[in-house]
């Protein structure tokens, strides 16, 4: 009797947890939260709908094209983590793994930035202004306005 009661309690707890997770996930998805943080994609969150869709599509294409590089960077970070767990630290191997991860990150970031340049070059001045505001907002700067003249 005690075993079945414990199983019932565990089942109820698991179901309550699962229901809460599902409800929380549904609220998060429905709230339509834009990209947060300092991501390049977040800079385009206030573009008009059509332009925002094209902007995100362009960035997704870069990520898809860079898939192997992204995986190589992830593998290098896993190798670095494994090296850090070793009883004797091989600093040369750790430095090499971290360098491979950094190079992968820089390569992907460079490709993303180049695609943003291409997107901006093909867009209107208004869209570029929205992107500029998004980048400034994500970097912690306030909206830049015309410089004030000193008296």
How would you characterize this protein structure?
InterPro entries: Metal_resist. This is Periplasmic heavy metal sensor. The protein is mostly helical and 151 residues long. The chain is flat. It has a domain at 47-134: Up-down Bundle (Four Helix Bundle (Hemerythrin (Met), subunit A)), CATH 1.20.120. Helix 3 (67-85) runs antiparallel to helix 4 (91-122). It is built from five helices and no strands. The chain has helices at 2-30, 49-65, 67-85, 91-122, 125-138.
CATH architecture identity of the domain at 47-134: Up-down Bundle
Give the helix tally. 5
Major sheet, described briefly?
A: none
| CATH topology descriptor of the domain at 47-134 | Four Helix Bundle (Hemerythrin (Met), subunit A)
CATH class of the domain at 47-134: Mainly Alpha
Give me the Rg, rounded.
23 Å
Helical coverage, percent range: over 70%
Poorly predicted sequence stretches spanning 5 or more consecutive residues = 146-151
Structural class by SSE content: mainly alpha
The average pLDDT is 81
InterPro entries: Metal_resist (IPR025961)
Protein name: Periplasmic heavy metal sensor
Question: Descriptors for this entry?
Answer:
151 residues; flat; single chain; Four Helix Bundle (Hemerythrin (Met), subunit A); mainly alpha
TL;DR?
This is Periplasmic heavy metal sensor. By secondary structure, the protein is mainly α.
SSE topology:
Blueprint: H1 2-30, H2 49-65, H3 67-85, H4 91-122, H5 125-138
Helix pairs in contact: 2-4, 3-4
Organism: Mesorhizobium erdmanii
Protein name: Periplasmic heavy metal sensor
């Amino acid at each position: 009797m005690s075993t079945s009661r414990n199983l019932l309690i565990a089942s109820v707890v698991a179901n309550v947890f699962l229901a809460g997770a599902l409800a929380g996930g549904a609220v998060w998805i429905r709230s339509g939260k834009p990209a947060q943080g300092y991501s390049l994609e977040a800079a385009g969150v206030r573009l008009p709908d059509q332009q925002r869709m094209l902007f995100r599509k362009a960035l997704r294409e870069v990520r898809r094209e860079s898939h192997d590089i992204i995986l190589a960077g992830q593998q290098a970070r896993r190798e670095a983590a494994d090296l850090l767990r070793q009883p004797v630290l091989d600093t040369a191997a750790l430095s090499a793994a971290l360098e491979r991860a950094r190079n992968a990150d820089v390569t992907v970031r460079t490709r993303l930035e180049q695609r943003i340049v291409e997107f901006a070059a093909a867009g209107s001045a208004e869209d570029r202004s929205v992107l500029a505001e998004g980048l400034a907002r994500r970097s912690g700067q306030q909206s830049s306005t015309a410089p004030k003249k000193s008296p």
